[in-house]
């Protein structure tokens, strides 16, 4: 049995392919449990962000006589020191968090695509100048720069925060795309298209950009995750206006009113749990993208699923080898 498993270790699984394309690639993507789990969690928060104003049980600013009450049937996530409903604040704050994160992710990804692909394809002085610009933004500490820029603005609203995060978060993606474009621009299919007289914009959009789709998607997910943490950090330390509800604002007021010392664990636990779930969902989606585009990771995942279907637990680490003792010669 062990010999059979070793000999068939790299064999394709029935109904699946080791180098899928087209519909088979989409089929494997749909069977990627990491990506599906991450997309499911993220989709849940997106739905909450869309319908939040209609399902919030109370006005998040409404005060009541239920001061610092733990979770109950009336207030599922408890109340604040002013009797405000924590669940309503968390639900309405979801929209602000996701909206700013996705806007920042789109802007940073767009700038990274333009700078990275242009630098990698053009070469020469243009490549050196854009690479130097990327290196400058890479060595600058991002979070302190975001805090300084946001603090200098008179009113750092949601769109302003998204733009600031995008300005400071595009450099890493641009460097990765530049390196991959340098590798792709000399490939045979690009040279063949260039020999046929294709224009530069056509070569970039039709030949190079489609081969960078997975890398762009992974960079976008990473930027969104960075934007979520950056926005919540700015709100938590009071840089952005505290009258606009998001998860960082809820944590800001919990910290300012000494919720931890007063035993109001629900005040910081529920927004913290939401932050953790969004971070986990984005991480799982990123892992799924890596497994989808990396043949080695994809084959490893397929072999692991094959072993589990056969009732065999995959072994991790080194496999011990037992040598039989030889008989002593007379």
CATH class: Mainly Alpha
Distance between the amino and carboxyl termini: 36 Å
Outline type = elongated
Low-confidence stretches: 1-23, 317-322, 324-330
What would you give as the CATH superfamily? MetI-like
Element-by-element helix/strand order: HHHHHHHHHHHHHH
CATH architectural type: Orthogonal Bundle
Task: Please name the defining characteristics of this protein.
about 325 residues, mainly alpha, MetI-like fold, 14 helices, disordered N terminus, disordered C terminus
Q: Can you give a write-up of this model?
A:
This protein is 67% helix and 0% strand. The radius of gyration is 26 Å and the shape is elongated. The chain has a single domain (30-55, 84-304), classed as Orthogonal Bundle (MetI-like fold), CATH 1.10.3720. By secondary structure, it is mainly alpha-helical. The chain is built from 14 helices and no strands. The longest helix is centred in the N-terminal third of the chain and has 37 residues, at 86-122.
Task: Give the structure's gist in a few sentences.
This protein is mostly helical. Helices cover 67% and strands 0% of the residues. The protein starts with a helix and ends in a 21-residue tail after the last helix.
List the helices and strands and how they pair.
Layout (H helix, E strand, L loop, with lengths): L1 H6 L15 H8 L2 H23 L30 H37 L1 H16 L2 H11 L5 H12 L1 H14 L3 H8 L4 H9 L4 H24 L10 H10 L8 H29 L1 H15 L21
